[in-house]
Amino acid sequence: MFVIKIGGSLTDLDPLLQDVAACQEPLVLVHGANKELNDLSNRLGHPPRMVTSERGEVSRFTDATTMDHFLMAYAGKQNKRIVERLRALGASAVGLTAMDGGIAIGRRKPDLRIKDGDKVKILHGDHSGSIERIEPKLLRLLLDSGYLPVVTPPAISHDGVAINVDGDRLAMEIATALKAERLLIFADTPGFMRDVSDEGSVIPTIRLDEVERVAEYGKGRARVKLLAAAQAIRRGIQAVGLLDGRGEHPLTRAFEGAGTWVTT
User: What is the fold, at CATH topology level, of the domain defined by 2-35+75-102+132-263?
Assistant: First the structure.
């Protein structure tokens, strides 16, 4: 059994969804919808607000209005369009958020410390958080009954509030809880690259003891994905793929060794 994560930056999902529908192995599909959310927020007159934390990490400030838009884009359009296509391809897909059945439970961080030039400011009313516990019972029930769960953020906080959580982290936590053999993360890049401007610089294999050194080549999301992959390996996943979701048969190419594979 394995878990697939589809990045929100991918624009043409159909080749990957065709591969997923044809796959005979039980799997859970996790997806994002960043592009959909950005487009929707702009159309509704509440543009995305990206902020930089004290540690230099860039994230979305998710106020109450943005969380409404988040639910529309993630749990609404993107999730249901993916389920629609998978079912048309013959897969028994079921769309869920990580709130449903308490799949992912975490802690909301309503106050966000950010850097604004040389100053540190505190933003109040954030609806983001971190995953603290996975309850895989609902996912196991669906898998055992032959369904293909399609899961997206948000998660649910301990006090019952929807929280924006990192999709790669959600996929990693689900893979760990289900004791998946592999975690496959698809994005709009060919893998983890030594030089972000050179798609020919993909590193095919990264061992766990090489991650800290190799991570210095990455920036932004690429580095976050690699560190999440390393954590998944430490927690029992046999291999994590950082893979290209573009072009024909991306899942087939991944199983043939394309992209970057993080292993023990």
Answer: Carbamate kinase (3.40.1160)
